[in-house]
Amino acid sequence: MAQDEPTAAWLVIEARRLLALPDYATNAAAQRQVTGLFKAAYPGEPAGTATAPGQVPASPFGQRG
């Protein structure tokens, strides 16, 4: 890994910082950034399965209830 490449730990820390933004739910740019950070931190993870710490992955069967 090159010296200037971010580590997975840094990528996750940066994603957590963005997730903590008060307007995260409506901030599309921050959401895209978080998605990109998690893809970079976990490159082998299939698309759509990476979640932020403390979040539950979305069910492929939809919501229950």
TrEMBL record:
Protein name in UniProt: Uncharacterized protein
Domain of life: Bacteria
Region Disordered: start-end pairs: 45-65
